[in-house]
C-alpha cells in the first residue's frame, strides 16, 4: 500500500475502486466548477474520480485480494477514452455522465466486477455501470443545466483503491494504492 492511509488487520474499511483523472482534466474542472456549481457542495479537486466499484465496509484482511483484483483487471485493460456526454442530477448529486468512446472502460468495469464477485466482496448492481464524474453534492436538487466542461476526450491516468472516511463535512478519500493502465497511454 502507498503511504498515507494506514490500516490495521481487524479494521473495517470503507472502500471503492476508481479511474484516476489526468491533471489536464482536473485543471479544466476546477474553474468550471467554480463558475457553474454554486448551489451545493462542489467535489474538491483531489476527490474527483470515476468510480468503478463501491465496496462499502470491508475487513482490512480483504484489502490485498481486492487490490490484486484491481491490478489484474488494469493489466488486461484496453485503451480507455472518455469524454463528457451530458449533465445529470440525482436526488443528492450532480454529475457529468461520460461517453466510453472505445468501450474499454465498461470492459474494465465488468472484468473488475467479476473478479470482485468471485472473491465474495462485491455484488454488481442490477443496472449497467455508468461512467460519470460526481462533481456536486446537495441536500435540495438545484436543477442546474450547466454547459459541459471543455475537457475533450481524455485517457484516465490510472486506477486506484480508495479509503473513504466519513466526516461531518463529508467523506474524505485517501488513495491506498495506484495502479497504471498499461494500454492507457
Structure characterization notes:
This protein is an alpha+beta fold and 185 residues long. The protein has one domain (12-179): Cyclic Phosphodiesterase, Chain: A, CATH 3.90.1140. It has helices at residues 23-36, 63-75, 104-119; strands at 12-20, 41-42, 50-59, 82-89, 93-100, 132-137, 158-165, 172-179. The strands form two sheets. It has a four-stranded antiparallel beta sheet, covered by helices on one side. A four-stranded antiparallel beta sheet has the order 2-6-5-4.
- The CATH homologous superfamily corresponds to Cyclic phosphodiesterase
Beta-strand percentage range: 25-35%
User: With helices defined by DSSP (H or I, 4 residues minimum), what is the helix count?
Assistant: 3
Q: Structural class, please?
A: alpha+beta
Task: Summarize the amount of helix as a percent range.
Answer: 10-25%
Reading the helices and strands in chain order gives: EHEEHEEHEEE
Strand order of the largest sheet: 3-1-7-8
* Backbone CA Rg: 16 Å
Overall mean pLDDT score? Answer: 92
Largest sheet entry: 4 strands, antiparallel
Name of the CATH architecture: Alpha-Beta Complex
**What is the fold-level CATH name, i.e. the topology?**
Cyclic Phosphodiesterase, Chain: A
| CATH C-level name | Alpha Beta
Find the count of extended strands (DSSP E, 2+ residues): 8
